[in-house]
Amino acid sequence: MHPTADQLAQQIEQTAREAFGDGKLGELLTNGQWKALATPTIKKTFADLGRQLGFRVAASGIPDADQGWLYDLVWFVPQAPFTTRVTLTLESALA
Questions:
Q1: Per residue in 12-67, pLDDT tens?
Q2: Do 59 and 48 meet the contact criterion of CB atoms below 8 Å apart?
Q3: CA-to-CA distance for 2 and 55, rounded, in angstroms?
Q4: Contacts of 26 (CB under 8 A, 6+ apart)
Q5: H or E element in which residue 35 lies
Q6: 62: nearest Cα among 86, 40, 36
């Protein structure tokens, strides 16, 4: 069973605060290699969370993820026969 929308929102916010709060995102973005580091770090953080919450993850450049879709990262649940429930789409627009 997947979390409710409220539980998802709380978990996403908590993960974002832990991973990127207290100036961590600013440090990542002011690093001389920010283009090479920021998007992959964001994608990995939320790919890991999506898997922990029981979703399949699609994102290019992330080990063990499905092929990337239109967005940087997608959490989804395949449903038979030809539909897919998309729970989260993420576009970082940094690189």
A1: 999 999 998 988 888 877 877 776 788 888 999 999 999 999 999 999 888 889 88
A2: no
A3: 8
A4: none
A5: helix 34-52
A6: 40
